[in-house]
Amino acid sequence: MSKTLTATAILITTMIGAGFLGMPYVISQSGFAIGILELVAIGTILMVTMLYLGEIVLRTKEHHQLTGYAEKYLGQRGKKAMAFSLVVGIYSALIAYLIAQGESWSFIITNTTYYALPLGIAIWALMSAISYFDIRTLKRSETLVLALICILLILLAITSIPNLSLNNLQTISIKNAFSPLGIILFSFLGYSAVPEIARILKKDKSKMKRSIIYAHSFVLFVYALFTFLVLGVYSTNTPEVATLALGKPFVLLGIITIFGAYISLSIALMDMFRSDYQFKKNEAWAFTTIIPLALFIILSLTNNLSFTKILSFGGIIAGGLALFLILAMVKQAKLHGNRHPEYKIPYSKAFIVISIIILAIGLFTEIKNLI
User: Fold this and answer.
1) Which of 49, 189, 288, 316 has its CA 20 to 30 A from that of 94?
2) Is the pLDDT of residue 138 over 60?
3) Measuring CA to CA, which residue among 220, 218, 206 is closest to residue 4?
4) Is the pTM of this model over 0.90?
């Protein structure tokens, strides 16, 4: 049971990051009813996809990271595509974390977001230094993150319920019906943790299926409840970083959560550069940290700095590509895997078609928004 809880916690904290802070804003654009339907639908699709990934891992004797499984079952092109997906997803997250950190610290210090750029650069320096020295104790802190999430929800419920109005949840916009797709996709990205939980479970790998279902169910509940409480009070007045509307204690909780997530993702990307592409430590650190900082500054100076747009772009491109690759891998793993898996998920062409249609809609919407 302890291993199951640990595996579940790792999956939860890998998925919950900056995405849930932007979810109330994008769902406010489409309307609560439409947004929740999309949240449930996409959450279910991504849970099944993660179960497929778990089966891929269990059908393979050798241990790999995602790029290694893609190479084994899809060849060099598959490996490169998966690496591209991971890099785009992590870069999008790191830029979004810098935006959230800058705006949050500016709000705490000055009650405005005017100084988001210089404060974002300052906190970048601190987080990047920690990433460089690879302080692993700050990388893995599932219990702390889960505790902060629970505290956030409890405090939010206590402070919001007296001011909550169901009328704020009745707005619907067909025009913006698909606006939440990218953020929702991004908010469930936790594929990189699946090989790790396989190592943790060791001889209890039969519990992987249960851990994935538990984690997705919990994350779906957290996203739905957080969105319900925020929109029930603020409706369309919700800012892109939702905690900015909730007061400084909530902003501080968001800062702590994002701080740990930034370090965790940076170290993960550095590890990939070093292990898969033989980068030296300084090169891996530079590619991991300098590029997001440069993009953060450029987007800020050109007034194109949008927390939710960056997350949405990352969700559609990185999340969509990873989903497609996993669906392609599972068929090959079922045919050519070299190990008997502890569980099997039926291969469904209907599921794949529906998933691709949703991705196509999301991609079209994202391109339209960018244009």
Assistant:
1) 49
2) no
3) 206
4) no
**DSSP-assigned states of every residue in 199-226:** HHHGGGGGGHHHHHHHHHHHHHHHHHHH
Identify whether the C-beta of residue 260 lies closer than 8 Å to the C-beta of residue 144. Answer: yes
pLDDT digits (tens, 9 = 90+) for 348-359: 888 888 888 888
Residue where the block lists tokens 């007061």: 247
Q: Is 37 exposed, middle or buried (0-12, 13-18, 19+ CB in 10 A)?
A: middle
- Average pLDDT over every residue of 84-98: 90
**Whole-angstrom Cα distance, residue 95 to residue 83?**
18
- CA–CA separation, 115 and 120 (whole Å): 8
> In Å, what is the CA distance from 80 to each residue of 72, 85, 190, 285, 322?
12, 9, 19, 20, 11
What is the spatial distance between Cα 290 and Cα 90, in angstroms, rounded to a whole number? 13
| Helix or strand holding residue 248 (H, E) | helix 248-277
> How many percent of the chain have pLDDT more than 70?
96
Mean pLDDT of 158-169: 88
**Residues 182, 366: contact at Cβ < 8 Å?**
yes
Structure confidence at residue 124 (pLDDT): 94
Closest CA to 24 of 143, 126, 160: 160
Helix (H) or strand (E) holding 182: helix 181-187
Q: Which residues, 6 or more positions from 135, have their beta carbon under 8 angstroms from its beta carbon? A: 263
Residue 49 has pLDDT above 90, yes or no: yes
Cα 93 to Cα 65, 149, 197, distances in angstroms: 19, 18, 22
- pLDDT value for 142: 59
Contact 342, 206 (CB under 8 A): yes
pLDDT single digits (tens) 102-136: 999 999 999 998 999 999 999 999 988 888 876 54
E strand map for the chain: none
Instruction: Report yes or no: 137 and 313 within 8 Å, Cβ to Cβ.
Output: no
pLDDT of amino acid 135: 52
Q: Contact, 343 vs 58, CB < 8 A?
A: yes
Residue with tokens 């991971």: 86
Q: What angle do CA 84, 99, 288 make, to 5 degrees?
A: 35
123 near 296, Cβ under 8 Å?
no
